[in-house]
UniProtKB/TrEMBL annotation:
Protein name, UniProt field: GntR family transcriptional regulator
Biological source species: Allorhizobium taibaishanense
HTH gntR-type domain boundaries: 10-78
A single GO molecular function term of this UniProt record: DNA binding
Pfam family membership, one: FCD
Keyword set, alphabetical order: DNA-binding, Transcription, Transcription regulation
Length: 235
């Protein structure tokens, strides 16, 4: 099988994910079918074992495959839209793509926050407080991600700009995916709650510099989980 070509800027792992996607489609593999072994995939596509392992780790993180003893990687339907998501997987969870999504969020949320900072009422801030409490009370990873997104979405919505809010909503799936990865690795709801609370207090005190710094630091925090996954997969 001929490896699929990708843009020059794509990583070896991204290319490997694309090759596996193409192989699954070409072989018409279905849920429950086993993928070739790491060694076989490496030989098939001329990739190192570490690259193959990292690509499989990415696919596993998104519920596209599961790793079973003696069987190896098996296609799974653990998540409802696994196949659709698989087609854009490598754009969603690489460190470079993480920075792109979070960069988008910084632009939108910082701009929205500066408006909120100047016009927020006590009721608006109370809504943010209530949304943040739900983050701390979350039980499952999916619930924590949904509540985390709801907090940030509310921040943007409170700016009162429907175009800005619609733009943010358009990236909902990508943002939620990144949130699930971070919370799946380490469900630190209290730390997220504390970071959100500091952001709320900066808004309450109308401290623009503190707000910008705290938001930027908070959005960068999840990168460690993406990079950790990559390093673990390559061990």
């Amino acid at each position: 099988m001929k490896p699929q070509t990708k843009p020059a800027g794509s990583s070896a792992v991204e290319r490997m994910i694309g090759n596996i996607q193409h192989m699954i489609a070409e072989r018409n593999l279905a849920f429950g079918d086993a993928l070739p072994t790491e060694r076989e995939l490496g030989l098939l596509f001329g990739a190192s074992r570490n690259t193959v392992r990292e690509a499989l780790q990415c696919l596993r993180a998104y519920g596209v495959i599961s790793i079973r003893p003696k069987t190896g990687a098996v296609l799974t339907n653990r998540q409802s839209h696994a196949v659709d998501r698989m087609m854009t997987l490598h754009h969603a969870i690489s460190p470079a793509s993480f920075r792109e999504v979070q960069g988008f969020r910084k632009v939108v949320e910082t701009g929205a926050g500066e408006i909120v900072l100047m016009r927020a009422s006590d009721e608006d801030l109370a809504l943010l407080d209530a949304a943040n409490r739900k983050v701390r009370e979350s039980v499952t990873v999916a619930e924590a991600a949904a509540n985390d997104f709801a907090f940030h979405d509310l921040l943007v919505k409170l700016a009162g700009n429907s175009v800005l809010h619609a733009s943010y909503q358009s990236q909902r799936s990508a943002i939620l995916d990144l949130m699930r990865i971070g919370k799946g690795n380490q469900p630190i709801h209290q730390a997220t709650f504390d970071a959100h609370q500091e952001i709320i207090e900066a808004l309450r005190s109308k401290d623009r510099l503190a707000f910008s710094y705290l938001l930027s630091h908070h959005l960068d925090f999840g990168l460690r989980f993406i990079e950790t996954d990559s390093m673990t997969a390559g061990d």
